[in-house]
Write a structure and sequence with these properties.
Elements lengths: L1 H9 L3 E7 H13 L3 H5 L11 H9 L4 H8 L4 E9 L4 H4 L2 H6 L3 E4 L10 H16 L5 E5 L6 H9 L3 E6 L6 H6 L2 E4 L8 H10 L23 H6 L14 H16 L3 E3 H11 L13 H6 L5 E3 L6 E4 L5
Helix pairs in contact: 13-14
Protein name: NYN domain-containing protein
GO molecular function, one term: RNA nuclease activity
Pfam families: NYN, OST-HTH
Length: 323
């Protein structure tokens, strides 16, 4: 009840996100390498025998960006619930574990009870979503990351309960019926920026010393394919956790502006809305920790990314010409 009252007072929308993770990973792989490519190249491997070098390379090329999906979901409000359903013991899914736990996602284990594993995640996801909505009446938006038409009854029921439903799926792997049943649908590819990694490096190269950060790159499908599970089993009493690099402030500012500009179709954004979006994407962001006394000073430190409205309206826009 307290959460409901807080939402009513603040007016802040609250979002529940549900990933049919196997579906989105397989759909993305098949989109890149052809129909049934995942079944041919990956499925059945990675348990009794290591994945081939070619399969690892393709998995890396077709890697799903968890941040891209959750950053978009955060444009609708605070992420109150985030659940991802898959067989997390499989190395392909386990490679995403750190990405998801870094965004406070609950990893729901789906044990392979049969060869086909048909509808296992679908049913569990639907049951959990309905339970969440009846227990959490402050949830205003439901984001379903999937492509299976089996989710249509769930979408219809959620809409009848007065929630706004957003679907996210991979082109070619999403049922048109599911997309049409949602209040809003987003193509996964539209959430990506082709040159995002290159642009992030350019921004950080120009960043002031106080805001410069480092991040260690890694191949999530190489080295330890179980994402640290083997290390934890070897040292059960040790306090082991993923080392998650903090998101770099310059690219975080740019991403927030891009998302808000796309959502509102407005060039100028209120400064408080921009900072709020940044906090939704990375709750650990604080401009003072990067050496800036105010958020305005932080924005001014990235003239190649954004500019402030000097007329006193406390607005920010993406620098014309920046990606």
């Amino acid at each position: 009840m307290a959460a409901w009252k807080a939402q009513k007072v603040s007016g802040e929308p609250r979002v529940a996100v549900y990933f049919d993770f196997d579906n989105i990973v397989i759909s993305r792989f098949d989109q890149r390498f052809g129909r049934s490519a995942f079944a041919r190249d990956v499925r059945g491997s990675g348990r009794s025998e290591p994945l081939s070098e070619e399969a690892l390379k393709r998995l890396d090329e077709a890697r799903v960006s968890v941040n891209a999906v959750l950053d978009y979901a955060a444009t609708f409000g605070t992420l109150a619930v985030c659940r991802a359903y898959a067989d997390w013991s499989h190395p392909v899914n386990a490679a995403y574990r750190d990405d998801l736990t870094a965004r406070a996602a609950d990893l729901v284990q789906m044990f392979p009870l049969s060869v086909r594993r048909k509808n296992g995640a679908d049913i569990r996801l639907a049951v959990d979503a309905m339970e969440d909505l009846f227990l959490l009446d402050d949830v205003t938006h439901v984001v379903i990351v999937a492509g299976d038409s089996d989710f249509v009854p769930l979408v219809q029921k959620v809409r009848r309960l007065g929630r706004y439903v957003v679907g996210i799926g991979v082109a070619g792997g999403t049922s048109r019926v599911l997309a049409g049943a949602c209040d809003e649908y987003a193509d996964y590819d539209a959430l990506l920026t082709d040159d995002e990694a290159e642009e992030d490096e350019r921004i950080e190269a120009l960043a002031p010393p106080a805001a410069a950060g480092t991040a260690v790159g890694r191949n999530p499908f190489g080295g330890d394919p179980l994402g640290g599970l083997q290390r934890e089993a070897a040292a059960p009493d040790a306090e082991v956790g993923p080392e998650v690099p903090r998101r770099r402030p310059g690219p975080l500012l740019r991403k927030a502006l891009v998302l808000l500009e796309t959502k509102t179709d407005e060039e100028w954004q209120d400064a408080s809305a921009v900072k709020n979006q940044m906090l939704r994407m990375d709750p650990s962001f604080q401009e003072r920790e990067h050496g800036f006394p105010t958020f305005s000073a932080f924005v001014k430190a990235y003239p190649g990314v954004a500019e402030l409205d000097e007329s006193g309206h406390n607005r920010i826009r993406r620098r014309p010409g920046s990606h």
